[in-house]
Amino acid sequence: MSGTTTQSGQTLSDLDTATTAAPADTVLAIVDGALQQLPVSAVTADSLPLAGGNITGPVTVSVAPTDDTGVVRKVDLTKYVSDSVSSSALGTITATVQNNADIVAVIASTLSPVQKSISASNSLSLSFLSKISTAYSISLSGNCTININSGAGIGGLLTMIVTLIPNGFNASITFDGKSSWLGGFEPIFSNSQTSIFMLTTSDDGATCYGKPY
Questions:
Q1: Domain range for residue 84?
Q2: Is the pTM of this model over 0.70?
Q3: How far is CA 78 from the centre of its chain?
Q4: pLDDT digits (tens, 9 = 90+) for 13-65
Q5: Are residues 140 and 105 part of one domain?
Q6: DSSP output for 126-174
Q7: Of 8, 19, 64, 184, which is the most buried if we count CB atoms within 10 A?
Q8: Within the chain, what is the greatest distance between any pair of CA atoms?
Q9: Do 129 and 174 lie in a common domain?
């Protein structure tokens, strides 16, 4: 290219020194294999600035990060956490990860012990909530049927420890899945003294093994 070339009445050398393009200015761009002259506003409308800007929709990243500042994908996070613990004992972690808060929630909900104190009567459902252990302290305020949920979705060998404070009321245990108690008999819980029992499962509660203390 030789001579003076103009664009919208300005020489290219003048455009080179411009600091900000006006929306009405035009640029050359290849669209669907063809060279077209487009307004700047059409080219930049859906573009993210080199500095600043916000992303409001989902972002798809096709490869794992290669340094500490790279974007972490869900598959990379779950593999890292699973590799960082004993996979033979804890199984595979599955979770929905959208942002940093979800990353913290994944680690906290699956790799930290969970303790809950509950006042209950009539009926109560308990779930396995952690790969480390789930502990419930239940204070009865009436006769209560306690159901152990299946389908935890965590995987691995899970443990639940239940402390039952009867306060003069009766409790019974039911299961979504199958149950097998040490000695072959489901325990009868006293309504006058605290009972403690432990449940374990290796199939997300489909089969629970119980042991009273």
A1: 74-110
A2: no
A3: 9
A4: 555 555 566 666 777 777 777 888 878 777 666 666 677 777 777 777 777 77
A5: no
A6: E----SS-EEEEEEEEEEEEEEE-------S-EEEEEEEE-TT--EEEE
A7: 64
A8: 101
A9: yes
